[in-house]
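Q: What would this chain look like folded?
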Amino acid sequence: MKVVVGLGNPGKQYEKTRHNMGFLVIDQLTDIFSCDLNYEKFKGIYGICKNPALPEPTIFAKPETFMNLSGEFVRPLLDYFKIGPEDLIVIYDDMAIPEGKIRLRPGGSHGSHNGMRSIIDNLKTENIKRIRVGIGEPTYSGVDYVLGKPTGESLQLAEEAIELAAKATKDALINGWAHAMNHFN
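A: My prediction, written as structure tokens:
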């Protein structure tokens, strides 16, 4: 079984903000695979997708802990289903990547992203596959920027990156991580 977690902040005021790119990718993936996030447990929501297009059941999930505590959801979810970090993909926003671009990595540091920091701290490993969705460098205060909603050209680039990240995730789930990295990086 695989687990795909999109990071973001719960609540109406955070919908469609740059910091919620992970949530938006999960929304697109659940549409692609006709799955619902119909379980609420471990401080988050998730669904178990058994779509015939997928080689194995896959959990799509969103923490409801707020970004900085994402690991408090991911750890119990993996423990409950007896899934190791090697079968986890985390999707999140990244200011170091230009708007509209994505980057797949097999592991590494949190790169100052507090959601990944929490997951790494809770799982005690940096070997976590991740898809980083570019939101670009802030043009104003970092916190206000990531919690802001993209508009105009930025919105178009965000939508392209969300779609690209969903395609990359689908490819990784069906054809393997190495194939997706070669194709989308």
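The chain is about 40% helix and 20% strand.
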